[in-house]
Amino acid sequence: MSRDAILAKMLAAEQMLASGDVEGAIAIAQRLISKAPGDPGLNSLLAVSLLRKGTLPQAEFYAKRALQAEPANVDLLINLSMVLTAKRDQAGAMAVLERAVASNPTSHKARLALANALMDAHDSPGAISHLKAALANGPDAQVETSLAGALLNLGMIDEAAAFSREALTRHPDEPALAAGYPNALTYKYGVDPDELARAHRAYGETVRRIRPKSQVVAPPRATNPAKRLRVAIISPDLRQHSVSFFAEPLFEHRDRAQFELLAYCNTRTPDATTARLRALADGWAETANLSDIMLAQRLRADEIDIGVDLAGHTLGNNLLAFSLRPAPVQVTYCGYPDTTGLAEMDYRIVDSLTDPPTPEVDARATEKLWRLDPCFLCYRPNAESPEPWRDSAHPGPVFGSFNASRKINAGLIGIWSRLLQALPGSRLILKSFDFASKGAAERIRAEFAARDIGEDRLTFMAATKSYAEHLALYSRMDVALDAFPYHGTTTTCEALWMGVPVVTLAGNTHAGRVGVSLLTNVGVPELIAHSEDEYVSLAARLATDAARLGAYRSGLRAKIAASPLCDPRAFAARWWGALREMWAQACERDAKGPTA
In terms of DSSP H, where are the helices of 211-301? Predict the structure, then answer.
């Protein structure tokens, strides 16, 4: 077979792989490999195809054989690192990427891949070093997007927002940068809600400006309000992730005669949660290797009636697919605490406490806010949760916050420092994945030190080996401190479940009002402060009131268990009922004639 014939067949296999026909691509590549066993491109194609299938030992074999001919090829090294990552060999993947950088120190692609791997390993300082080295060789939109994300990971909120805004002047048509700016602002202490809304709308305007005209087609129409609805849930977080904690009741409790649930899973790290959700869905598609255009085409081909986004602007999202309007009704829920900025997203599911029904609040969202009262969330406690207790080996008063380190901004540290100063001898436990490496903890220590809070009063913890061990750590604290302006969600539910009261400060954005909804619905609104001074005084009084702490420790679990927050059947009935009503409204809309 001539070289041209081999290349033609390889191209056909690549097109099959791009369209999702993994088996077809493998079949062609396996037939060709006997003709040219040492060809690096052919070996790489077979490795990537086998990776997509999940046949990892064979994928590793062909990825390594591809490198025998071109050991310094960045693309081939990155392919091998992807296989090793899928095999959970993080150290091996990192070593391969370090080899790529050593061989190609001026390569943006090599340094970007290594930086992203370092961020996955919670080493943002290491990632920043490589990203800055890459930019020394010239601007690059993807590198700058990752650098903004690394700054955000470290909790350098002002720097991340400023860098994103500046990078947008160089790359005005880069949607990831346009999304990174409002995402950073969401964490900003003292953020102006109107500025935040404008930043999200600017993202939507960027997407509309760059959208290929060939992809702008008439949206599907809603017909037959009584039909069984095909509902697509689309997410990168159908795995052990906080989003899945809240989404699982929707998979489990639905009227299957009324709703067909199809899940489109955009994760490269499936786990036991993924398998459990897959078993609950009517259909499942792995979409991590589909472009947004391909995903939109797939959703249209699957004749989806309602598309539900569970990611917003978080990592791995598919908002660009939603911008192509693949479904008659499009909804965003749970994964992101603000508007998407897309005019093509019809609804955002919230409640009247997170988003009070006022003209100002409604005007800040590009979607119609659908208030799913009394609470827009449903929490499923872990079946292996230990019983609430207070560990006397850690005498109080002890405060704690297990929120992501990026939520711990300088303004919040100032408030927490006032609290610690008000109670001499009190201590603060902080836990975050990011504390596994240098950077995040050092920043926070320095901020506290600048306010005369010594390291002896701070405890930093990284990830635990098991979820049960994580929950057991709540036994060491008396009062959980909510972050602001970006409240906790899973962390608040966990603390309450473990009998620990959570003090929150009511804000003026959705992100700053989730705690208000959770605490109100659990029946402990007395833990909600409405000013920074009240937040400090409320937490200080509570931490020294042994009787109240004991009552919370013994009674909070029963309160949350009996609340709307832990009633999955009732919640799912409301949630799926809301989708049915959205569909009815769309049918009424489309019956009037074509949409613009």
Answer: 242-252, 272-280, 292-301
Count of structural domains within the chain: 3
Pairing mode, strands 229-235 and 347-350? unpaired
Residue 449: the pLDDT is 97
On whether the pTM is more than 0.85, the answer is yes
pLDDT value, residue 484: 96
How far, CA to CA in Å, does 116 sit from each of 121, 202, 236, 305?
9, 26, 16, 35
Tokens of 105: 């120190």
pLDDT, tens only, 312-321: 999 899 999 9
**Is residue 199 included in any domain, yes or no?**
no
Cα-atom radius of gyration of the chain, to the nearest Å? 25
| Distant-in-sequence, close-in-space partners of 580: CB < 8 Å, separation ≥ 6 | 229, 258
429, with CB counted inside 10 A (0-12, 13-18, 19+), is buried
Contact 501, 542 (CB under 8 A): yes
In 3D space, the residue among 559, 550, 567, 551 whose CA is nearest the CA of residue 497 turns out to be 559
Task: Flag whether 149 is in a domain.
Answer: no
pLDDT in tens, 58-103: 999 999 999 998 999 999 999 999 999 988 899 999 999 999 999 9
Residue 481's nearest CA partner among 396, 401, 398 is 401
- Asked whether residue 358 falls in the same domain as residue 244, the answer is yes
My answer on whether 489 and 532 are in the same domain is yes
What would the two tokens of residue 515 be?
Answer: 């705690």
Structural domain boundaries enclosing 260: 220-378+570-591
Residue 553 is part of a domain; what is its CATH number?
A: 3.40.50.2000
> Backbone phi, then psi, for 307, in 5-degree steps?
-100, 130
